[in-house]
């Protein structure tokens, strides 16, 4: 049975396994679009997008991935493979072959994986918003090498749109004040013994800029295992506009609290281990790539990687951080709607 179209949100779970259901909020009539949330979030993250998209003639389905929000939290292997298979069943429920698939952050990586592991997916268009891929671990040296390829310097960011990968350069110090915060991940020792969260919070505030080796993800996994997840989100999304509004921070933390620790840890392990470079080269549908100029989770040079690897993709950089759904809602909405 396909999703029931209508003007009001309807909870419409999708059976994705024995005793496992994926929650879906459904709204609007018209062209099908599926929204996939990011790490530690739920379908509720899209509340600033859904009204705009439905007003532009989209039949929107916003899902909760297995282990997050209102979806089932079953003992399972929380992997890109599992989530992509669940996503495939949710997409098939549209009973259409012209779906627009939108993935944000973790959801973007899962969308990438789905597109390249499912034969002839019924997706007409792909949109990757601050997507956590094609890889999320790298060395400082590797960052510098990649930036050199794009003509960037340690005090420059990608701002352009369209065919020019580099766009124009702006003075944005993506390395400044970060070296000492990340160096050797040695500062996490106190955190791992439970003495203080300050060190990892410091790292999270500048996640990714200087180099992120697997030990960095190991520290976050240990932190979640210690039950310290409420302290994670404010630092992960520490890009000005979000932290200026206490109710927004609380809203994000509430979504995090509905996440299964096992799902959070599984997501971090996948982001630590997976490299989707070969997969991206196989994506053959029109793709829109959106990133934030100030994003320290998925920095501009990684957005450039996605743009180069996906043939024919279009990209734009917005003047925000990782929280583009809030910080740049109007511009993002127009990009998603394609007009």
Layout of secondary structure:
Blueprint: E1 6-11, E2 14-17, E3 20-22, E4 24-28, E5 31-36, H1 50-55, E6 58-63, H2 80-92, E7 99-104, H3 106-117, E8 123-129, H4 140-149, E9 156-158, E10 169-171, H5 179-182, H6 189-192, H7 198-205, H8 214-225, H9 232-236, H10 246-257, H11 261-273, H12 277-280, E11 287-292, H13 300-309, E12 314-318, H14 324-327, H15 329-337
Parallel strand pairs: 5-6, 5-7, 7-8, 8-11, 11-12
Antiparallel strand pairs: 1-4, 2-3, 4-6, 9-10
What does this structure look like?
The chain is α/β, with parallel strands linked by helices. It has two domains: 6-137 and 275-337, Rossmann fold, CATH 3.40.50.1820; 179-273, no CATH class. Helices cover 37% and strands 18% of the residues. It has 15 helices and twelve strands. It has an eight-stranded mixed beta sheet with strand order 1-4-6-5-7-8-11-12, with helices on both faces. Strand 5, helix 1 (50-55) and strand 6 (58-63) form a beta-alpha-beta unit. Helix 8 packs antiparallel against helix 11. The longest helix has 13 residues, at 80-92. The protein is globular.
């Amino acid at each position: 049975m396909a999703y029931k179209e209508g003007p009001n949100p309807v909870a419409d779970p999708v059976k994705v396994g024995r005793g496992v259901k994926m929650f879906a909020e459904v709204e609007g009539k018209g062209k099908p679009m599926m929204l996939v949330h990011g790490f530690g979030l739920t379908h509720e993250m899209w509340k600033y997008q859904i009204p705009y998209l439905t007003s532009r003639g989209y039949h929107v389905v916003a899902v909760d991935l297995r282990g997050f929000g209102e979806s089932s939290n079953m003992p399972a292997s929380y992997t890109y493979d599992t989530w992509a298979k669940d996503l495939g069943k949710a997409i098939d429920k549209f009973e259409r072959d012209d779906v627009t698939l939108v993935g944000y952050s973790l959801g973007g990586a899962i969308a990438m994986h789905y597109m390249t592991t499912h034969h002839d997916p019924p997706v007409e268009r792909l949109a990757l918003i601050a997507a956590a891929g094609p890889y999320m671990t790298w060395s400082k040296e590797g960052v510098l090498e990649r930036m050199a390829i794009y003509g960037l310097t340690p005090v420059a960011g990608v701002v352009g749109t369209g065919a020019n990968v580099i766009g124009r350069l702006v003075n944005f110090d993506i390395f400044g004040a970060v070296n000492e915060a990340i160096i050797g991940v040695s500062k996490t020792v106190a955190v791992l013994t439970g003495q203080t969260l300050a060190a990892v919070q410091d790292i999270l505030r500048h996640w990714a800029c200087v180099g992120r080796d697997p030990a960095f993800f190991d520290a976050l996994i240990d932190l979640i295992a210690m039950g310290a997840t409420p302290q994670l989100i404010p630092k992960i999304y520490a890009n000005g506009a979000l932290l200026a509004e206490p109710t927004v921070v609380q809203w994000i933390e509430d979504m995090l609290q509905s996440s299964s620790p096992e799902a959070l840890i599984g997501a971090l392990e996948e982001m630590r281990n997976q490299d989707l470079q070969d997969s991206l080269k196989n994506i053959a549908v029109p793709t829109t790539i959106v990133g934030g100029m100030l994003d320290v989770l998925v920095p501009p040079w990684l957005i450039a990687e996605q743009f180069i690897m996906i043939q024919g993709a279009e990209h734009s950089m917005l003047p925000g951080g990782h929280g583009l759904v809030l910080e740049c809602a109007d511009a993002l909405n127009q990009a998603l709607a394609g007009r």
